[in-house]
Amino acid sequence: MVKGIINTAAEQAEQLKQDGNLYFKKNRLGAAIDAYTEAITLCPDVPVYWTNRALCHRKRNEWGRVEEDCMRAVRLDPKSVKGHYMLGLALLQRENYAEGIKALERALDLGRGAHPNSYMVEEIWQELASAKYKEWVHDSTKRNLALQKLEKSCEIALQEKLVHDLSHKTDGTDEVGYSTSEQLAALKLIFSKAAEADKPTDVPDYLCCKITLDIFRDPVITPSGLTYERAVILDHLEK
C-alpha cells in the first residue's frame, strides 16, 4: 500500500513537471512555477524540478530565488550542469565573482564530459569568459582607485614636507623646491608604471588557435607539439 502511494506521488510529480514544461513553452511563467512547486512538494529530492523552477525565476530576473533553487539542486545532484550553470549566473548578479566563476567552471567541466558539442557548453563558455572579464574590470578598477588614493596621499605628504623645509630654511637657495619637484616627478612615474599592469593588452598568439584565430577554449596538443582547439582538430581529422 505504501509503495503504491509513493509511485502515485512520483507519477503526479512527473505529470506536474510536464505541465510546467508546457506552461514554460507558452511563457506562462507563473503557472509553470506553481506546477514545479507542487512537484517539489510531492518529490523534493528530484533535482530537475528545482532547476526547472530556477529557469522560470531566471526569466523573471528573480536571481535570489534562482540561487536558492540551484543550491538545492546541486546538493541533490553534484553533477547537475544546469544547476551549477544557473547558480554561477545568480552569484555573478550580486558580484560574487569568485564563487560565480567557480560554479561556471564546474558547469563547463561537467558539460564537456557529458555533451561536449551541445549548445549549452558554448553558452556556458561565453558566460564564463564574460564573467572573468567582469571580474578583471572590477578588480583592476578597485586597484586603480587604491593606487590613486595612495598617490594623492604621497603627494600631500611631500607638499607638507616642502612647506616644513621651507619654513626652516636659513639660506636663500631653492634646493628644497627642486628636490621636491624631482620627488613628485619620480612619484608620478612610479605610480604610472604600477597602473600599467591593469591596462588591457592584445591576446598573445600562443593563446589563440592557429585555425580559428580565436582564444583557446578547450586546447589539445598534437604529437607534433602544435596546439589546436579540440573541436576544430577533431572535425578536421574526421573529414
UniProtKB/TrEMBL annotation:
* SMART domains found in the cross-reference section: TPR (SM00028)
Instruction: Quote the catalytic activity from the record.
Output: S-ubiquitinyl-[E2 ubiquitin-conjugating enzyme]-L-cysteine + [acceptor protein]-L-lysine = [E2 ubiquitin-conjugating enzyme]-L-cysteine + N(6)-ubiquitinyl-[acceptor protein]-L-lysine
Keyword Transcription regulation on entry: no
Give the record's GO CC terms: cytoplasm
**Keyword annotations for this protein?**
Repeat, TPR repeat, Transferase, Ubl conjugation pathway
Kind of enzyme, top EC level?
Answer: transferase
Q: Name one GO biological process term.
A: protein polyubiquitination
Enzyme Commission identifier(s): 2.3.2.27
Instruction: Tell me the GO molecular function terms.
Output: protein-folding chaperone binding; ubiquitin protein ligase activity
- According to the entry, every stretch annotated as the U-box domain falls at 202-239
Q: Where are the TPR repeats?
A: 13-46
The pathway it acts in is: Protein modification; protein ubiquitination
Please give the InterPro entries that the UniProt record associates with this protein. Answer: TPR-like_helical_dom_sf, TPR_rpt, Ubox_domain, Znf_RING/FYVE/PHD
Recorded hits in PANTHER family, A to Z, give: E3 UBIQUITIN-PROTEIN LIGASE CHIP
Name this polypeptide is given: RING-type E3 ubiquitin transferase
From the broadest rank down, the organism's phylogenetic lineage runs: Eukaryota, Viridiplantae, Streptophyta, Embryophyta, Tracheophyta
